[in-house]
Amino acid sequence: MIKAILIFNNHGKPRLSKFYEHYNEDTEQQIIRETFHLVSKRDENVCNFLEGGMLIGGSDYKLIYRHYATLYFVFCVDSSESELGILDLIQVFVETLDKCFENVCELDLIFHVDKVHNILAEMVMGGMVLETNMNEIITQVDAQNKMEKSETFIFQSTRQDR
Amino acid sequence: MALKIVKGSIDRMFDKNLQDLVRGIRNHKEDEAKYISTCIDEIKQELKQDNIAVKANAVCKLTYLQMLGYDVSWAAFNIVEVMSSSKFTYKRIGYLAASQCFHENTDVIMLTTNQIRKDLSSPNQYDTGVALTGLSCFVTPDLARDLANDIMTLMSHTKPYIRKKAVLIMYKVFLKYPESLRPAFPRLKEKLEDPDPGVQSAAVNVICELARRNPKNYLSLAPLFFKLMTSSTNNWVLIKIIKLFGALTPLEPRLGKKLIEPLTNLIHSTSAMSLLYECVNTVIAVLISLSSGMPNHSASIQLCVQKLRILIEDSDQNLKYLGLLAMSKILKTHPKSVQSHKDLILQCLDDKDESIRLRALDLLYGMVSKKNLMEIVKKLMIHVDKAEGTTYRDELLTKIIDICSQSNYQYITNFEWYISILVELTRLEGTRHGHLIASQMLDVAIRVKAIRVFAVAQMATLLDNAHLLTGNMQRNGICEVLYAAAWICGEFSEHLENPVQTLEAMLRPKVATLPGHIQAVYVQNAAKLFATILKNQEGNTDSTAAQETSQMMIDRLPLFVQSANLEVQERASCILQLVKYIQKLQQKDVEVAEEVSALFAGELNPVAPKAQKKVPVPEGLDLDAWINEPPSESESEDEQPKAIFTKEEPKHSRPRHTEVDEKELARRREARKQEQANNPFYIKASPSSQKVYQEAPGVEHIPVVQIDLSVPLKVPGLPMSDQYVKLEEERRQKERAEKKKKEKKKRKEKRSGRGKKHDSGPESEEDITPAHVVDIVTEEMPENALPSDDDDKDPNDPHKALDIDLDNLLETTARRPLADSEKLPVRSHRAAGAPKSPAEDGEAENATPQEPKKKSSKEKRDKKKDKERDRKRSKEEKKKKKHKREEKEEDLLGGQAEEAAVQSEETKEVEAQPSSTSAEVSDLDFWLSNAPVPSNTQEAATVAAAEADPAPEAPAGTAADSEPEEPKDTETEESKSSKHKKKKQKKEKEEKEKKKKKKHHHHHHHSDGGGEESVQNGTVEEEEPLPPMSNYCLLAENSYIKMVCDIQGNLQDGSQVVVSVIFENKSDSFLKSMEFNVLDSLNSKLQRPEGSGPHDGLTVPFQLPPGVSNEARFVFTVQSIVMPQKLKGTLTFIVKNEDSSTHEKLDFKLHFTCTSYLITTPCYSDAFAKLLESGDLKSSSVRLEGVNMPFHHLLARICFHHHFSVVERINSCASMYSRSIQGHHVCLLVKTSAQTVSIDAKCDEPTLLGNVLDEIKQTFSQC
């Protein structure tokens, strides 16, 4: 099970937080801060696994992260997930974002966090991996965006009428 | 104008979408909080608007603010509003917001049920998808209960996109509403074979999650997963399955054996590191689960270790980390194979990555030997110096101590060295582990006598330099070592070189800054030291020195008398007065040293932690029996103490206590009365049991000692078991001391030895003195003291509720079909969502009235089955399971009442779960027994029989496992025909009833197989239930052990016969070192492992605790199979009692009948006819008289005992077929009339045929 997915930048500013278990807002912020603290002090060329410790869940949980340019992608998972599998999943996630945003950068995530959520929802659902095939993910995301666009078009035209 | 303003403001608000908000926040870096609070105000305004678009926009912004840590739960209702919008765009925004901030305690959630249900059934797949995604995050028990049925319907949706989401969300539903697991499971299982890989992956995912928590319930799915593993190409799925197998193998070693090969193949073939790694991991799990029974393991271990080495050597840090992680798993069971990679692991200690260093440290623990310990520790000490963070340094420190102290200091050859290391560790700044070091110092100094001189010297230095340690009071964790130092110096003060100096050091004013408990030790040990000094000084002529010492004590102690710590204060004032008195005596020139040192005389011995438990209870003493009649709870004893005593009187005259003389009794009674009278709080009469111990005759020798477990306290005596250990220790101590002297000469070690490299090279492992045996009780723990896993389990773990037995659900015969109460709740106006199985209404109606009765019998059977399993597992699990059963029963009973009202029409469904896959489930054993289908039917049966409890408590439990006898294809065929199924079910029901009554049989084994086939091929209408049968026959028996055996041919190898022997321990002792040996004949030989001689016995690969039985198999090679054979054999074993062990043996005769060379082989009637026509067969016949049993019983017996199958049956005539392991065809034509049975037989080997017929005849003459 995936317990949480966090994206934050090099300064610890959250860009996306998805908790698959409920915590109140303060705890969530604390978890993000502590995770950032743990992850940010690690060198570039060390392994991508961190025993999460007390943060979430306890000893069964690991933090698996990847660092891309200005962003950290952190997955907090338990022992039923394959470590290398999750690393691959992060890669798929980032590549999918790249396809959907066309050369994704931090700004895209800042301004379109809802879209990132929608993409993520096609990959991971309720803490379990739903789909790992990038093409399938993109197809579904595109189809939904198309639907949204058709609706917004109607909506915008009514707005212009006003 | 006003309108314009309003409109403008709407536009403005409206314009501020998420992007504007984000931009705004970024532009207001200084007053972000203020800006956001104005934004929230705006949002509140927007939410008041009627326009859903405005609301959605507001909710979207709130979702963002939630991520920044703002509580937005106040807008929960608005979120629900947006969720219920008909537009997908808004709906998605609403569901996203809900998934981010709703939780179980959000009260508006209950308003969403209908909306979600509507969305789930929306024609637009994305509406459904969004609802499922959202629901997966905030599903509550109520939602789960109300929507479970809708979601289950979606599992069969036409769109794979919906199916996979529905499958996945079921896991969340199960967690919140465990009752849904059983009804939903069959469909979930179906999805494992969904044509869409995504759905399949989701189902694998869910089942893996479920199975991880309660693996035993999913063992029956192993064949299916095995199939998936060998067929799937999706790495993600493969990884999950392989991980799942890793969880299953500990429960079923046979599964492990089956897995090794495909896993090894995967390891060799895959290029995906993630998959390779998981394969290696699971192979390790398999190897751990298998006992040493299989010799070819070393190859697999080697392969794993080798692959892991490649990972560790990889430049990718991730692989390195994982390699080390997996390596540590191997280390636990196969330390040898890891040790050869020591170089690599030591290298990893230098890695710049802390995670990797920590993993390498874990491995080091198993790497050390006497030879390399010093070298490794030296390396670690260097790391300690270099380490930056305190966490890593503390980790290093604990690892050093762990490594050195493991298995009773097994690897330490030089304790001076170890003490030096400990002293050096005290120089560490800011460690938290001062206490750990201190306890090691104490332990070593107390337990290794020879080291005391050295230790005391070191400790004295430490005390002298205490200021170095206490310099930084902020992090005074390390000052704990002073506690140890002071105690060691005081207790072993006779070894001190300069006791006065040490005494001076212990009484320095600075000491008063130490923590109280350390000061107390200081004061107490100063007194001990003082006693020693007096003793030394009084021998001298000069008495002034002694008086000076007393004066120093008197000068310094008042400081401690003023201490705020009570303990310190009390000890100090006590000792101060003592010293003052001594001084007075000294001034009168009275010799006091003797008396003073008498205060501290006597050696303090270490007591093993469990010593008290080991004190044997003397014979005839029943600790649980009441010594006095328990007072009845109702009456208050304060009111009528007299009455209690008069009542107790007769009890005292119980035989056990008659010897206690009357006077004594009277005296005790008096004393107690007194006590009671004086004690207003006296509640219950509970006379001190100790008194009785001491006064009861014959038990005087029991050492009634107060054993305090903390080391430095006085112990007035030792439990007996410990004394032996102590003697042993002393003996070795001497040995060691001598050796040491030599060593010392050789090495001329400096006192601070660690600076120099300790050269242990020239010493070979054997040369090294045996490790100092330190006082540790080596006796096994009492059985009831086994650690129970129960403690580890979190009682709040939601997965506990999911520990639900699912196997029964999938049986054709549905031993515990879904009860009505287990149906998922459906809204009343709705038709049942689940597709109905082709069950006949009539049957269901018939079944319903009998339900309760049937269930109870099923429950019983389930329990029996449990018992069988339990033998294989721990006691703890048993408890848990029972618990589970109870729960189940509860819901069965509780559910029945409410069920009827809601869904009376659904009763019909109860019995009829999809049955196409059922064969596989019941065939788990069959599948696991590793051989092709037809040949193995009997073998599978033996496995099943072996699992059936041979102990009397569960004699009838075999039926469940006997189903594997049916060949798969016939079973499926059969299940297609509902008519047959009905019959079969009915029959089985009857059988169950019957079985319940026949509990007195031991290993009887039900021949469902034979019986079934006669039903299938024949046309018999009503069958009577078959009596239970077993192929296991008694081999030999004595008062210790009972052996029953079953002999089966091996079709794959025409010259092999497998003998399965169940050994049952009948005694109260432990049976071990069993050796099975047979005197080979020319024709038959026991297969022995390579390298052993022709007369060597085979070791039985297990030991037997009292009352336990287990099965072993032995393979024999036979040349000719036409004649029966008898082999003489012997079983030797050691009977181990608590105090003695004896060698015993048991002779037996193995009887290889010709029947045992036959193998049940199905044959079709046309092939059978051809065979008969071919004319190659010789015929023979036999007549059986007075056979008084129904014809189908007769057939079943022949099928079962003689491994035949029915080819065709017409009325009271049947043709039967079997084949020998060497391919001889045996055909029978069995006819019966009245009580006479005639058997005409044909076979291509007349001798074999003759013998088989004789055996058949014998079978029937016995009954």
TrEMBL record, chain A:
<keyword id="KW-0813">Transport</keyword>
<dbReference type="GO" id="GO:0006886">
    <property type="term" value="P:intracellular protein transport"/>
</dbReference>
<comment type="function">
    <text>Part of the AP-3 complex, an adaptor-related complex which is not clathrin-associated. The complex is associated with the Golgi region as well as more peripheral structures. It facilitates the budding of vesicles from the Golgi membrane and may be directly involved in trafficking to lysosomes. In concert with the BLOC-1 complex, AP-3 is required to target cargos into vesicles assembled at cell bodies for delivery into neurites and nerve terminals.</text>
</comment>
<dbReference type="InterPro" id="IPR000804">
    <property type="entry name" value="Clathrin_sm-chain_CS"/>
</dbReference>
<dbReference type="GO" id="GO:0005794">
    <property type="term" value="C:Golgi apparatus"/>
</dbReference>
<dbReference type="InterPro" id="IPR016635">
    <property type="entry name" value="AP_complex_ssu"/>
</dbReference>
<dbReference type="InterPro" id="IPR027155">
    <property type="entry name" value="APS3"/>
</dbReference>
<protein>
    <recommendedName>
        <fullName>AP complex subunit sigma</fullName>
    </recommendedName>
</protein>
<dbReference type="InterPro" id="IPR011012">
    <property type="entry name" value="Longin-like_dom_sf"/>
</dbReference>
<dbReference type="InterPro" id="IPR022775">
    <property type="entry name" value="AP_mu_sigma_su"/>
</dbReference>
<keyword id="KW-0472">Membrane</keyword>
<dbReference type="GO" id="GO:0030123">
    <property type="term" value="C:AP-3 adaptor complex"/>
</dbReference>
<keyword id="KW-0333">Golgi apparatus</keyword>
<keyword id="KW-0968">Cytoplasmic vesicle</keyword>
<dbReference type="GO" id="GO:0030659">
    <property type="term" value="C:cytoplasmic vesicle membrane"/>
</dbReference>
<dbReference type="GO" id="GO:0006896">
    <property type="term" value="P:Golgi to vacuole transport"/>
</dbReference>
<feature type="domain" description="AP complex mu/sigma subunit">
    <location>
        <begin position="1"/>
        <end position="147"/>
    </location>
</feature>
<keyword id="KW-0653">Protein transport</keyword>
<dbReference type="Pfam" id="PF01217">
    <property type="entry name" value="Clat_adaptor_s"/>
</dbReference>
<comment type="similarity">
    <text>Belongs to the adaptor complexes small subunit family.</text>
</comment>
